[in-house]
Design brief:
two-stranded antiparallel ribbon
């Protein structure tokens, strides 16, 4: 679930992409105009496949978290099932 700041950022990206793509904007507008009320229910919105596609593409192209940087805070040692010999001829029973 997106937090309010994330929602506003994603909404901005969606509006920018719609402004850049008039054909998609027109198609979405036509689909939204087919809803018989100005205050559609969640079920009515879920029944709009192009709206769903536009939202999913916005999230795909402009991910809320585009990447995650991680840094190990300690060294890990991973045991191996069978010892192996490296290119220097040294035998190892774990990977550091």
């Amino acid at each position: 679930r997106l937090t309010p700041p994330q929602c506003s950022t994603e909404t901005t990206w969606c509006l920018l992409e719609l402004a850049r793509n008039q054909d998609i904007q027109n198609r979405l507008r036509a689909e939204l105009a087919s809803v018989p009320t100005d205050e559609p229910s969640a079920d009515e919105l879920n029944d709009l496949p192009f709206l769903d596609a536009v939202i999913r593409e916005t999230l795909r192209f402009h991910a809320v978290v585009p990447n995650t940087l991680r840094k190990a805070d300690r060294d890990e040692v991973i045991p191996v099932s069978e010892p192996y010999i490296d290119r220097d001829g040294k035998t190892h029973t774990e990977i550091k």
